Amino acid sequence: MTDATELRRRTRELLAAQLPTRLPPPPSTDGPAGPPPSSAGTDRLDFLRARFDAGLAWVHYPEGLGGLGAPRPLQAVVDAELEAAGAPDNDPRRIGIGLGMAAPTILQYGTEEQKRRFLRPLWTGEEVWCQLFSEPGAGSDLAALGTRAVREGEDWVVDGQKVWTSSAHLARWAILIARTDPNVPKHRGITYFVCDMTDPGVEVRPLRQITGEAEFNEVFLTGVRIPDSHRLGEVGDGWRVARTTLNNERVAIGGTRLPREGGMIGPVARTWRERPELRTHDLHQRLLGLWVEAEVARLTGERLRQRLAAGQPGPEGAGMKLGFARLNQQISGLEVELLGAEGLLYDDWAMRRPELVDFTGRGAGYRYLRSKGNSIEGGTSEVLLNIVAERVLGLPSEPRTDKDVAWKDLAR
Questions:
Q1: 48, 90 contact by CB (below 8 A)
Q2: Ordered alpha helix ranges (H), 99-192
Q3: CA angle 405, 407, 412 (to 5 degrees)
Q4: What is the tens place of the pLDDT at every residue in 333-352?
């Protein structure tokens, strides 16, 4: 059994043998993607590969797949040793979709060949991932999706459109769900695939948002051929596989580990302390209430992560993501109000295609506008309320008239 002492020993051995003496500059968080890590900084990439091969990437994964089969909480032991030594990380914010959504799904449903092909470059950041789930006519009702995948020999030919796809302009791979049988009810005719974003027939177009940036994309799939060896799970069982991804996505969005006053509450608390001329009694009362709620959410997230150590994430992540969206919108609204006319200024409306969302590195106006998307992305708040009601609280399900109707017969 691998314990904390053994992990410290392994980590120090890794550092002694592999710690780079020359590190590249941190990856750009703005504009077009730079060169891949293999050309941007060989030392950094060599270290990340060695860390993965030593089982210190995610210690709870199996041996040979970046882990040691150790208890999940022991990852903190490794991370603390590496941080103290100044070792490079894999820039997790840039590759969050791969780490938080694709990797656990591949681990649970992938073949051994798929796990060995995809997990290492995913974790090192050599290959960025995106998520091809939502469609123009299937967002909240994701199971109503219409992108088709038709079997032709050893391949599947995919045609359709996806939307709101973060990182599609950077990604090499995508997790994709498509309809493979229109003659059964919508949840039963879906299959889950891994799609190569460099293949012919994949077109990525930017979607400019209210913030001015094109962080999201729409993706058009025209005759894209996906080998059957890139299917995850059984044919027609894609909804069950997708639920694993979605449960992990909600935890990734709403359950990020933060220090006290981390996240959105940090900038407004600093402004309150540094700008006493802006204070009013009413704003003080509202800020106190939101500060307490942010702290409760942070501690609840810690408790959720401790529960995750015992197994796969469940519907509890929906509650965390709900609170994350509501708090972000209320806190950013208070910040703009606190700043008065100054809060109406906007720092940069340039059309950019960023690699990640930088909530705390931009102005109050950006935070206010970008937080509007929090109640849409990763599952709308309305859908998550249903999940909490039915799967957490055990309340009766809403009546569903389409439950036993073939997808092809649904009104659209």
A1: yes
A2: 103-109, 112-124
A3: 105
A4: 999 999 999 998 998 888 98
pTM: 0.86
What are the pLDDT digits (tens) for 219-251? 999 999 999 999 999 999 999 999 999 887 766
Query: Is the Cβ–Cβ distance between 118 and 52 less than 8 Å?
Result: no
Could you give the CA distance from residue 232 to residue 155 in angstroms, rounded to a whole number? 14
Q: Which of 81, 127, 135, 249 is catalytic?
A: 249
Per residue in 100-159, pLDDT (tens digit) is 999 999 999 999 999 999 999 999 999 999 999 999 989 888 999 999 999 999 999 999
18 has a pLDDT exceeding 60: yes
Task: Residue 402: count other Cβ atoms within 10 Å of its Cβ.
Answer: 16
CA atoms lying within 13 Å on the CB side of residue 237: 8
- Compute the distance between CA of residue 231 and CA of residue 89 in angstroms, rounded to an integer: 30
Tokens 């060169």 correspond to 35
pLDDT above 90 (res 357): no
Residue 147: how many other CB atoms lie within 10 Å: 21
Q: What is the sign of the dihedral through the CA atoms of 308, 312, 313 and 316? A: negative
Within 10 angstroms of residue 109's Cβ, the number of other Cβ atoms is 20
pLDDT exceeds 80 at position 43: yes
Cβ neighbours of residue 302 closer than 8 Å, sequence gap 6 or more: 257
Contact 108, 115 (CB under 8 A): no
Q: Which residues contact 162 (CB under 8 A, 6 or more apart)?
A: 132, 133, 134, 135, 147, 176, 218, 219, 221
CA 184/CA 190 separation, integer angstroms: 10
Q: Cα separation of 95 and 318, whole Å?
A: 22
249 is catalytic: yes
Exposed / middle / buried, residue 344 (Cβ in 10 Å: 0-12, 13-18, 19+): exposed
Give the bridge partners for 203, in sequence order: 220
**Mean of pLDDT values over 365-389:** 88
In the chain, % of residues over pLDDT 70: 90
